[in-house]
Design brief:
The structure is a single chain. With about 280 residues, this protein is of the alpha/beta class. The chain has ten helices and ten strands. The strands form two sheets. An eight-stranded mixed sheet has the order 1-2-3-4-5-6-7-8, with no helix packed on it. Helix 4 (about 180-190) links the parallel strand 6 (about 165-170) and strand 7 (about 195). The N and C termini lie far apart (about 80 Å). The relative contact order is 0.07. Mean pLDDT is about 75; it is low at about 40-45, about 215-260 and about 275-280. Pfam families: LRR_9. This is Dynein axonemal assembly factor 1 homolog. Cilium-specific protein required for cilia structures.
Length: about 280
């Protein structure tokens, strides 16, 4: 699954000292400043948060994410190819627009609630089972979660709420082994411009909507609300057997309550009496 960090490298903890050294070295390189003088200033006053807008921490053998809380102006953070198992310590980084956590060992998506301005998120090459806990990322435009362990299509339905999502990378997950999976994804997320780095054409989208004629979508419950007319129910049942079992004829015509009680003798008997108000008037 890609080129992960070498297993023989000694793990590193992301401490305050580690970050300060990394930031000092980057500033000295970019700005052409004296490293010794920068180190002296950092020891006295610490690192000024407005000096750090981007951090590259790739292939550092990091075990954790920590001590980033003060860098609230950070807009780009790359922590790919490390030993990270848990997403943490990012809650205060509300200015972050770009986050790369690919090639790690993450199993659960969490700890991203505060990243309200995030537009790019890369979680490819991890061990993720479900797409979840992303609800606050309304500005998400590019989401890469390739080479994970996602099996259920519910994770695709979950993405309906992200109206700004234009680029999705989902290949090499078990759910994409299903027949016509690409077309199914496009039917659920027709706003996509790129799916697995391949441009979505108008013809592909038309074919997707013919195969999966979805008419109504709702993000409120993180799933699709399907509104099929009679001629489409057979194709729906082929791909969604539970829907066939739950289907009640006439429910869509507003007769649900009547249908449920029409075979109830007690209900019909009680319903035959006039309303109480009518009896009282007499």
């Amino acid at each position: 699954m890609g080129n992960r960090v070498g297993t023989r490298q000694k793990p590193v903890i992301m401490t305050k000292a580690f970050l300060e050294e990394k930031i000092v070295n980057e500033l000295a390189l970019v700005e052409g400043l004296n490293i010794s003088e920068l180190q002296r200033l950092v020891k006295i006053d610490g690192v000024e948060r407005n000096l750090v807008l981007s951090l590259q921490l790739e292939q550092k053998s990091l075990l954790n994410i920590g001590n980033l809380w003060k860098f609230t102006l950070l807009t780009k953070l790359e922590i790919a190819n490390n030993y990270i198992e848990e997403i943490e310590g990012l809650e205060t980084l509300s200015s972050l627009q770009y986050l790369d956590l690919s090639f790690n060992y993450i199993k659960v998506i969490k700890g991203l609630d505060g990243l309200i301005n995030l537009g790019y998120l890369n979680l490819s090459y991890n061990e993720i089972l479900h797409l979840e806990n992303l609800d606050n990322l309304k500005n998400l435009e590019t989401f890469l979660v390739r080479y994970n362990k996602i099996k259920s299509f519910e994770s695709i339905y979950y993405l309906v709420q992200f109206e700004n999502l234009l680029c999705l990378g989902i290949e090499e997950n078990p759910l994409m082994l299903i027949e016509n999976a690409r077309f199914h994804v496009l039917a659920v997320l027709p706003q996509l411009k790129f799916l697995d780095f391949v441009l979505v054409t108008e013809n592909q989208l038309k074919e997707a909507l013919l195969l999966y004629p979805v008419e109504k979508r709702s993000a409120s419950k993180n799933k699709l609300f399907l509104n099929y007319d009679g001629q489409h129910f057979s194709s729906l049942w082929e791909t969604h057997p539970p829907d066939k079992e739950a289907f009640v004829d006439g429910l869509a015509k507003g007769r649900g309550f009547e249908l449920l009680l029409e075979s109830d003798k007690n209900f019909r008997f009680l319903h035959s009496f006039p309303p109480a108000a009518t009896i009282a008037e007499k």
